[in-house]
Amino acid sequence: MAKKRIGLPPLDWLRVFEAAGRLGGFSAAAKEFGLTQAAVSQRIGNLEAWLGRSLFVREARGVSLTVEGESYLPLVQDSLRALERNTEDLFGKSPRELRVAGLSSNIHALVLPALTRFHEMQPGVRVMTDSVARRSSLDEERTWLQIRYGRGIWAGRDAALIAPEILAPMAPPGVDWGAPLIDLRGERPGWREWSQKNGQQDLLQSKISFDSMEHAISAARRGMGVVLGSVPLALADLQEGRLRRLDLPELHTKDGYWLTWPEDRAKSRKQRALIEDFLNALRG
Known about the structure:
The chain is α/β, with parallel strands linked by helices. Helix content is 40%, strand content 24%. Helix 1 packs across helix 3, helix 1 (11-23) crosses helix 4 (67-91) and helix 2 (26-33) crosses helix 3. The longest helix is centred in the N-terminal third of the chain and has 25 residues, at 67-91.
């Protein structure tokens, strides 16, 4: 294919090429832009003629990037992102809404106490929350800013630590060590790990068992026993006297609560500043 032009190709052609390369086909790119497949094919053909290089291999079963196309795609993607980010920084309005998703227990324990602090920093921003029933549901959640529990490593996502997970024996006033233990099932360490680490033997067998830290803490609040509770999730109860930490060792874990977002989001300076203020409010 003979080279026809030099310099920067039309932006419209580059955006269509980026979508076709990212999505793996002309049909998907057409759907994203609301164009016909023929219109996408024409724009990419124009770009190839401009560059004098074939960017896609056309086959009966679909299209695939050529070597030149694979080399050109990340360059185009980085350039489009930089243009979008710099345009937003120069001319865009400050964000007026912050939407965050997470487990109901995390929204209740981490987000609600932080709202006053956040609105002192960002008084014009409306906060919206989306609760999910299961941690696995976050992968399908459309709200891209999320609170997650784990070790801070999720494919394709950036993460900033809100608080490390610390487990401590706690109970309401009037309930002391020796009361029934409240058991919690799941990925967190439990009473068995706590007793092994601290040399505590002959713990009372638990009569109730939950699969939710929120429910286990609620049971302790009602005087049903002693819970090995999450300090970050029980912080409001501890500060307001509904629960108290017993004079017993705490258990540090490798997990924590994280504010996370996709790597390709939050690129503008204003959006990053908004997230940074929200993170500082969450950390208290």
